[in-house]
Design brief:
Structural class: alpha/beta
Distance between the termini: 62 Å
Helix content: 25-40%
Strand content: 15-25%
Shape: globular
Number of helices: 10
Length: 348
């Protein structure tokens, strides 16, 4: 059976077999037929479609020279005239995910349907209202599942078939609401789910839910009387007037301030800049969200060894999980480098 559609597949330098980070600056190139993971994708298409060509570009190239790289890729797509563009899968790789999203948008701007695949927490999936993204695992261990999902959705897009609800198609929700009749009233469906849950039977909730990541607690500090304690707050603490231009929400960085010469935080010198709570109480006493005065008391009583000379502040509200994770890791590395034994994290 002859393939019914032609696809162009996009991958980065790593999956093309060119190299890792040392080759992330390679430019755009085109190879006929499938390459790397495109072979698994070709197999998943099961003769219904073919990978006519593979476009390759380094992750750094698309992130550092996006306009030029997009224009070059769009030029190749115009010449190749595919029925559909398939990008990735990117799994949990952030820059690759962002690149796949850009390639899909470039294809769509030319009127070519496009689909990619990545983990839901990938930065490329954050602004996805205009993208069709197959949900994948975090690593290439889920390649077979991702390739199968990409092949199935690519076939639908190439045939111009309408996509069903996200949970049925295995794609990430785009926030598109479609009115349809489920056939039974809500209270009956809810009772069915409850009975299935009570009897240990499988069921699917109509309300999407992703369980939060579980983080193993750190071991307790062995001797507080000798411990150096750091201070971190997500309460949006800033110097008076916010001279460092901290944002009130959706943080992309944290701020480090010296407290080495301070006994307490004065409302004449510090305030809160945070969109998630009523700031007035904190502005009257900033020690509520960074209890420096209380730790100084413990320090003078020799109940703790010392207070670390720097404190860390950012607004936690509306910050995406992957950004918060990166910021947290960076703060933790800084605290460790400073010989801190334990940290007090104050949230709102």
């Amino acid at each position: 059976m002859a393939p019914t559609f032609r696809a162009v597949h996009y991958i980065n330098q790593f999956f093309a077999g060119i190299g890792g980070e040392e080759q992330a600056n390679v430019g755009v190139s085109v190879t006929a037929g499938p390459l790397g993971p495109g072979r698994a994708l070709q197999q998943a298409l099961a003769g219904k479609g073919e990978i006519a060509a593979t476009v390759v570009c380094g992750d750094n190239t698309l992130s550092e020279r996006p306009d030029a790289a997009r224009a070059e890729i769009a030029g190749h797509l115009k010449r190749l005239k595919p029925d559909v563009v398939i990008a990735g899968p990117a799994f949990g790789s952030g820059r690759y995910g962002l690149a796949c999203a850009e390639v899909c948008r470039a294809a769509q701007s030319l009127g070519i349907p496009a689909v990619t695949a990545m983990h839901p927490d990938n930065p490329g999936a954050l602004k996805r209202a205009d993208l069709v993204i197959v949900s994948s695992g975090e690593s290439a261990a889920s390649m077979a599942q991702a390739a199968a999902g990409l092949a199935r959705i690519a076939l639908k897009l190439a045939r111009k078939e309408a996509l069903g609800p996200a949970e049925q198609e295995g794609i990430l929700s785009r926030g598109v609401r479609v009115v349809f009749d489920r056939g039974r009233p809500g209270y009956e469906r809810a009772l069915d789910m409850l009975l299935a849950k009570l009897h240990g039977k499988p069921y699917v909730s109509e309300v999407p839910f992703r369980a939060p990541e579980r983080v193993a607690p750190a071991a307790p500090v062995r001797d507080l009387t000798r411990a150096k304690i750091g201070l971190v707050t997500t309460g949006g603490l800033v110097r008076k007037g916010n001279p460092d231009k901290q944002v009130a929400a959706n943080a992309t960085r944290y701020h480090r301030h010296s407290v080495a010469q301070l006994e307490r935080l004065s409302p004449q010198e510090w305030e809160a800049y945070h969109a998630g709570y009523f700031n007035h109480i904190v502005n009257s006493n900033p020690n509520y969200i960074l209890p420096l005065s209380f730790l100084r008391d413990l320090e003078s009583q020799k109940r703790i060894g010392s207070v670390y000379e720097y404190m860390y502040a950012l607004p936690g509200v509306s910050t995406p999980v992957h950004i918060a994770t990166q910021l947290g890791k960076s703060i933790a590395e800084d605290l460790k480098a400073g010989g801190v034994d334990g940290a007090l994290l104050v949230a709102t």
